[in-house]
Specification:
This protein has a 15-stranded mixed sheet that branches. A 3-stranded antiparallel sheet has the order 14-16-19, with helices on one face. By secondary structure, it is an alpha+beta fold. Helices cover 20% and strands 24% of the residues. About 3% of the residues have low confidence. Helix 3 packs antiparallel against helix 4, helix 4 packs antiparallel against helix 6 and helix 6 packs parallel to helix 7. A hairpin with a 2-residue loop joins strand 7 and strand 8. It has 11 helices and 22 strands. The N and C termini lie far apart (49 Å).
């Protein structure tokens, strides 16, 4: 594999004079973490094991956060249109450090496209040595929706994906039935579990160095049931690590663009025969651009966290067709189509805007992962550990979260981590925010207005695996930070009670708020749906962070 260079903002040989304001800000964050220069030297080795919670207390390392997108489509997907070079260049322009190309499984892709795509992946890595470029797949889950599947670079990365696609893809196998009580539903759901277990076995045996799975746009069709999501997680928690907290297609409801019924994320569906009957109508919408499962305090995501097990969230572009873009798909040569080539013709520029719902990778949606080294396996290790926060519209330059016992010195544990304490112990949640240092791609200088602290009791495994409520989770504190600039730290006191619990963070630009789905007593100022056709994403931006768990001794 081509030698990997550090990103410009992390490379001491690149003068600050050649960096934009955000690059300078990120370099300052890296220096503050003590990782600048040789300490953050390139290398694909996984980050050192986190020392969080090996007894009482526990402490995580200083981290640098790399920005990425795990859901991107190119000409090797039947419904997209861009080349690898166009997408990689856009990722570089908008500050991505890592990106995953996730082509749709398809008969043409399985037979022809994937090997051709791999050759382009290798060229893209060589042409973009300051980016980490993964090859992945958008898997049609038997009986359910879609997932991102991607592996660490290595001699078997494409073989793993093509073998997986042929043996386990719901669309290719005809294993799409998922309606309650249908004859094939149980078989199809079981096949999805087998698929994840097979991936875990490939990692265990060393066939690939690493592989991860994340559920994509889980509530878009209402066909990912709570019990299926729990079954996927439990099949191999080290492989099936989470879900998109916010879908791509965030430009779908730009006013005057796609139509009067358009919704951010293209969440424009109604329940079907395949949908799970236990979801309310509200589940089919986005809230501040975020999926209902994530945006509802005390909802599905919280119900999974309340079992005491990590399930991460991400955000991404799902890039297919970019809003206001002027490119269109090229024409097919005689006798060719996607099924017999596995690749669309390269796009051509029309000089006039074409239909689209998406933003370029990194233009609007960003997933930040905390690493101690720069490299492919470091990114994957950080995702697995849950050291993840996400933002829309470049709302923040940086976020560092640490939870510690007041009687301990040091930094404490961070996102995705666990802290063991005694009942009644005093804790402090330190939230260090670095505000946006430059206008975002829309020309707006984002301003964070508030930070919400969400706390939920941990009650262990649920008896009803279709439960989607966490009745003891609620917003317990809101910090008004309007007008604050630069880097500052919020110090939030917490007390351990009788039960183990988790705490997570959310915040926004303050433009759109209302009572959450489960009422104002649970979430007084949460994200709300926009009016159909009138969902300017740049005017309603949020950040979300993964939880930290607190295990109370004796609970």
């Amino acid at each position: 594999m081509t030698e990997q260079q550090l990103p410009s903002w992390a490379d001491p040989s690149v003068s600050p004079a050649f960096l934009d304001a955000q690059g300078v800000s990120r370099r300052q964050l890296l220096r503050r973490a003590g990782l600048f220069g040789a300490t953050f030297a390139l290398g694909s080795a996984a980050a050192p094991a986190v020392a969080a919670e090996r007894g009482f207390g526990g402490e995580d390392p200083h981290l640098a956060y790399l920005v990425g997108d795990h859901h991107i489509h190119s000409v090797y997907s039947h419904d997209a249109k861009y080349t690898f070079s166009q997408l990689a260049a856009a990722g570089a322009k908008y500050g991505l450090d890592w990106m995953v190309f996730t082509e749709h499984s398809n008969f043409g892709h399985a037979e022809y496209g994937a090997p051709l795509e791999h050759d382009e992946i290798l060229r893209a890595r060589a042409e973009n040595p300051r980016q980490l470029i993964f090859q992945g797949l958008e898997w049609y889950i038997p009986a359910a929706e879609h997932c991102t599947v991607f592996a660490a670079p290595g001699p078997h990365e494409v073989d793993l994906l093509t073998r997986f696609e042929s043996a386990y893809d719901g669309k290719l196998l005809g294993y799409t039935e998922g309606a309650a009580g249908a004859a094939d539903t149980a078989r199809n759901e079981a096949h999805a579990v087998k698929a994840i277990q097979w991936l875990a076995e490939q990692r265990r045996t060393g066939y690939v160095d690493d592989v991860l799975v994340l559920a994509n746009h889980p509530m878009r069709l209402g066909i990912d049931t709570p019990h299926e999501m729990r079954n996927w997680r439990d099949a191999a928690p080290e492989i099936m690590i989470g879900m998109e907290g916010a879908p791509g297609a965030q430009g779908a409801a730009v006013p005057g663009w796609r139509g009067a019924t358009s919704i951010r994320g293209e969440y424009e569906n109604k329940p079907s025969a395949q949908s799970w009957a236990g979801y309310p109508a509200a589940a089919y919408l986005t809230y501040g651009g975020f999926d209902w499962a994530t945006a509802t305090v005390g909802g599905l995501w919280d119900s999974m966290l309340a079992e005491g097990r990590l399930f991460s969230i991400t955000s991404n572009s799902d890039a297919h067709r970019i809003v206001f873009d002027t490119w269109k798909n090229g024409d097919w040569p005689a006798g060719q189509n996607f099924d017999n080539t596995g690749k669309l013709p390269d796009p051509v520029d029309t000089d006039s805007p074409q239909p689209g719902s998406d933003f370029w990778p990194g233009q609007f949606s960003r997933t930040h992962v905390g690493v101690t080294r720069y490299g492919y396996r470091s990114v994957m290790a950080a995702l697995r550990a849950g050291r993840v926060w996400l933002d829309h519209g470049h709302l923040l330059d940086g976020l560092d979260v640490r939870l510690k016992r007041d009687r301990d010195h040091g930094r404490g544990v961070t996102l995705g981590g666990r802290l063991r304490v005694h009942k009644g112990e005093k804790l402090t949640l330190n939230v260090t925010v670095t505000t946006a240092s430059r206008p975002n791609p829309q020309g707006i200088l984002p301003e964070l207005a508030h930070v919400d602290v969400i706390r939920g009791a941990v009650r262990g495994a649920v008896s009803d695996r279709d439960a989607w409520r966490a009745p003891d989770t609620r917003v317990v504190r809101t910090e008004d930070v309007a007008g604050r600039k630069g880097t500052y730290t919020l110090r939030i006191p917490l007390t351990a009670g009788d039960e183990s619990f988790y705490v997570r963070l959310r915040g926004s630009d303050g433009n759109r708020h209302g009572a959450g789905h489960l009422g104002a007593s649970v979430d007084p100022n949460g994200p709300i749906p926009h009016e159909p056709g009138n969902g300017d994403p740049w005017a309603d931006t949020w950040f979300y962070a993964n939880p930290i768990f607190v295990d109370v001794a004796g609970a």
